[in-house]
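FORM 12-B: Structure-to-Sequence Request
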């Protein structure tokens, strides 16, 4: 697990997936590089990292199942 206490999510699709898996958003802020987009903050846990890997590994960010 990463040593960071907060997981910073730049993807709305990933944020929605994490929320659907029961994770709570700690905060939302404007993306500093692309102000029309938001950044989502989650508490970093081994379970959250596992779900992020599941999302990225199965291609769920590209409408995979």
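FORM 12-B RESPONSE
SEQUENCE OUT:
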């Amino acid at each position: 697990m990463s040593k960071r206490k907060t997981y910073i999510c730049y993807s709305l699709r990933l944020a929605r997936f994490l929320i659907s898996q029961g994770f709570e958003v700690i905060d939302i802020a404007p993306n500093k590089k692309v102000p029309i987009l938001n950044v989502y903050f989650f508490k970093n846990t081994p379970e959250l990292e596992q779900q992020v890997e599941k999302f990225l590994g199965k291609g769920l960010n590209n409408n995979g199942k």
